[in-house]
Write a structure and sequence with these properties.
The chain is built from 7 helices and no strands. It has helices spanning 3-13, 19-46, 51-71, 74-82, 89-103, 111-116, 122-144.
């Protein structure tokens, strides 16, 4: 069988992708997530939070909402519909941390959940914590030595 014939067979057998529809759904879901974030930000600012604090509280709120939706198995349903639109960094990261923890809950509430929670996000969290401590130590040493 020649390469052209094989490619034709594969092309005929492969399901047709609804590319435009998938793009629209991803754009819609990602846009809704970002809009919710903006609405929360505005609410927190109107409640009296400074811009910096409102940003932090908004991020925490989006993480909490994503974790709750993941624990209720709703985030997966949204992801099936919206595809890549649910990978908006903060909510996608929260889902990536929460999902493995919930999958291993039967192995034990503390050990099963705690151990698997960091299987995907572990390297990112470990690097972030270590880097923050190292930078803080360097800053402290420079401040004590009155270099800064």
């Amino acid at each position: 069988m020649k390469r052209k014939e094989l490619n034709q067979i594969v092309e005929n057998a492969a399901p047709k992708s609804k590319l435009f529809s998938n793009f629209c759904k991803a754009f819609l879901v990602g846009g809704i997530i970002c809009t919710i974030g903006q609405i929360l930000f505005e609410i927190y600012q109107k409640a009296g939070a400074s811009e910096d604090k409102a940003k932090v509280i908004t991020s925490i709120s989006l993480i909490a909402i994503s974790a709750v939706l993941t624990s209720l198995s709703l985030y997966d349903k949204i992801a099936k519909f919206g595809g890549a639109g649910t990978l908006v960094p903060i909510t996608g990261f929260a889902n990536a941390v929460t999902a493995p923890a919930l999958d291993n809950k039967p192995e034990g509430k503390i050990l099963g959940t705690g151990v698997q929670m960091f299987s995907i996000a572990g390297p990112v969290i470990v690097y972030g914590v270590l880097a923050a401590n190292i930078y803080g130590l360097i800053y402290y040493i420079l401040k004590v030595c009155k270099v800064m």
